[in-house]
Amino acid sequence: MRIAVLQAGAVNGDVAANLQRIGMAAAEASLQDATLLIAPELATTGYGAGDAIQSLAEAPDGPQATTLRQIARDNGLAIVTGFAERGDDGKLYNSALFVDSTGPRACYRKCQLWGPYERALFTAGPPEAVCVNYGGIKIGLLICYDVEFPERVRALARAGADLIAVPTATPSGEAARFISSRMIPVRAFENQLFIAYANHHGHDGRFAYAGSSCIAAPDGGDLARAEEAGDAFLLADIDPGAFAQSRAENPYLNDLTG
Question: Is the pLDDT at 74 greater than 90, yes or no?
Answer without folding.
Answer: yes
